[in-house]
Amino acid sequence: xxxxxxxxxxxxxxxxxxxxxxxxxxxxxxxxxxxxxxxxxxxxxxxxxxxxxxxxxxxxxxxxxxxxxxxxxxxxxxxxxxxxxxxxxxxxxxxxxxxxxxxxxxxxxxxxxxxxxxxxxxxxxxxxxxxxxxxxxxxxxxxxxxxxxxxxxxxxxxxxxxxxxxxxxxxxxxxxxxxxxxxxxxxxxxxxxxxxxxxxxxxxxxxxxxxxxxxxxxxxxxxxxxxxxxxxxxxxxxxxxxxxxxxxxxxxxxxxxxxxxxxxxxxxxxxxxxxxxxxx
Length: 280
Description:
Blueprint: E1 20-21, H1 34-42, H2 53-56, H3 65-80, E2 85-86, E3 92-100, E4 106-113, E5 125-132, E6 164-167, H4 169-175, H5 188-208, E7 214-218, E8 221-228, E9 239-246, E10 251-258, H6 260-268
Parallel strand pairs: 1-5, 6-10
Antiparallel strand pairs: 2-3, 3-4, 4-5, 7-8, 8-9, 9-10
């Protein structure tokens, strides 16, 4: 059975779609984020929350929105790759989170079979603990599971400056106009001109700094994220342009544009993005 998410993502979600229950001690003041807070404490220091107010408003009362999204989508990829490991008795499960401790040890998520799942009011598994590779909680798993992989062709990671960018503006402006800065919403002609101007500048920016093109993972493919500075005089990107390489036509197809929080969550799956411009 393929699960739709690692943990419960919304109140009405069918428990059969969810891999594991993540317990927390409500009477002691813990929230549902407590397990993720424990993971953040043992992992290398990283900022797992958004800074821009518009993104904070979408994740009210959440301290680890980037981490919860990262772990969920990492689990889904591991499920595709059949890298979730189970004990011989079938009563324990484990996967590699892709995160490491400050000393460089891999961190694993461990689970035990949820016997209460028979009535289908609970997911099949319950989180046991996040542990590093020294832990005796990993004894049932030999060898230890590997991290999720995304990159098969290193050429996917670098923008080919010989290729042009052809954006699908009709699709974007018809379906995702609400992602545009407010000043451009409702004024399609102005939006087209501003977007086209920003795209013209991109190759010059990439030529000076190849790290501007940030790889991200979407529906089984590596795509690149490029900064779109539409309204800010200080060079801060408003949106991220998603491009996909087409080697037949020797172009990059502009697929859509993402808000900075969406772009960061997608990019973080592969690696922690450098803070060149993707700073949500």
